[in-house]
């Protein structure tokens, strides 16, 4: 029999989760609200409520999984990004809040009223492509990924969000864009250095390695994209790239050496160098 109140369940879970999570209280709230199939506000409105046994069982099973380190997003199979609720699976990277900065920087460069062609390389769950699609409904967007499993998830996300202006294509980076040019290309490629990945494995081990790690210095994917993109950009088209906290200078140098102009680097909400922009020549 389930005697514990929502308040007690939360307190106990948060205490246990403090061992493994940087956000124990939040994790507990999200899992408990999901187990009850209620918004989080329900937990604060009804702290004395005692959940049904099957609700507590579901919560406890999820809590045990979270205690092994499995991310909340994979346990629930969903994650919020921008204004969207996205399905995520172990085939897709979990979208991070810092990637919303890339979306903002892209939108600043995309007039609302013009029909434009955009591309998202290595789209994963589709986070960037779908956020751009909702904000720029007149745009035509191509999202590429080498992983058919990720593309399946991304297509479902588009469908569920009622988004029809994104086309999904399988292949590496610009490969599926042959013969086409875009007003803006965006990518959050893998950029973790191999050695860093080994250090952070505890935290990242549930996510697809191919979406995270990019060679010894973490720049392999960024180098390929910066090399390929000019063949697929219209004159004055933009390339926007997310990168690691210590890769801002390297990304700007790669962009300049390739011939990009108006290059700039931007910090995320945590003040960390995170996104580089470059404009192809007119
Ligand atoms: N931002 C992620 C991390 O450092 C990495 C994402 C990526 O490689 N694109 O955990």
Helix content: 25-40%
Ligand set: glutamine
Tally of discrete structural domains: 2
* Name of the top-level CATH class of the largest domain: Alpha Beta
Tally of individual helices: 12
Tell me the CATH superfamily of the largest domain: Vaccinia Virus protein VP39
CATH topology tier name of the largest domain: Rossmann fold
Q: What about the largest sheet?
A: 7 strands, mixed
Descriptive report:
This protein is an alpha/beta fold. The protein folds into 2 domains: 6-68; 82-279, Rossmann fold, CATH 3.40.50.150. It contains 12 helices and 9 strands. The chain has helices at 6-17, 24-36, 41-45, 53-67, 72-76, 99-108, 127-135, 148-160, 194-199, 201-204, 220-228, 248-258, and strands at 78-81, 84-87, 117-121, 140-145, 166-170, 182-187, 233-242, 261-267, 273-279. The chain has a 7-stranded mixed sheet with strand order 5-4-3-6-7-9-8, with helices on both faces. Strands 1-2 form a two-stranded antiparallel ribbon. The radius of gyration is 21 Å and the shape is elongated. It binds glutamine. Glutamine binds next to loops. Glutamine (GLN) binds next to loops.
């Amino acid at each position: 029999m389930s005697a514990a109140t929502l308040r007690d369940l939360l307190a106990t879970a948060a205490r246990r989760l403090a061992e493994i999570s940087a956000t124990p209280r939040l994790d507990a709230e999200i899992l408990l609200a999901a187990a009850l199939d209620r918004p989080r506000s329900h937990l604060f409105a009804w702290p004395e409520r005692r959940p049904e046994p099957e609700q507590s069982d579901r919560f406890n099973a999820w809590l045990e999984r979270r205690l092994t380190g499995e991310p909340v997003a994979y346990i629930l199979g969903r994650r919020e990004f921008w204004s969207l609720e996205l399905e995520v699976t172990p085939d897709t990277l979990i979208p991070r809040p810092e990637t919303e900065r890339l979306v903002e920087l892209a939108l600043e460069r995309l007039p609302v009223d013009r029909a434009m062609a955009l591309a998202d390389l290595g789209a994963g769950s589709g986070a960037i492509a779908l956020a751009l699609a909702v904000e720029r409904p007149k745009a035509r967007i191509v999202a590429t990924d080498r992983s058919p499993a990720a593309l399946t998830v991304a297509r479902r996300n588009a469908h569920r969000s009622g988004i029809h202006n994104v086309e999904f294509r399988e292949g590496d980076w610009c490969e599926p864009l042959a013969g086409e040019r875009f007003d803006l290309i965006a990518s959050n490629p893998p950029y973790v250095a191999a050695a860093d990945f080994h250090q952070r494995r505890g935290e990242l081990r549930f996510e697809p390695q191919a979406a995270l790690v990019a060679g010894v210095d973490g720049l392999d994917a960024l180098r390929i994209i910066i090399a390929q993109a000019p063949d697929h950009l219209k004159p004055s088209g933009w390339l926007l790239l997310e990168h690691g906290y210590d890769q801002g200078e390297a990304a700007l140098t790669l962009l300049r050496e390739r011939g990009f102009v108006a290059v700039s680097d931007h910090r995320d909400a945590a003040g960390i160098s995170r996104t580089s922009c470059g404009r192809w020549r007119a």
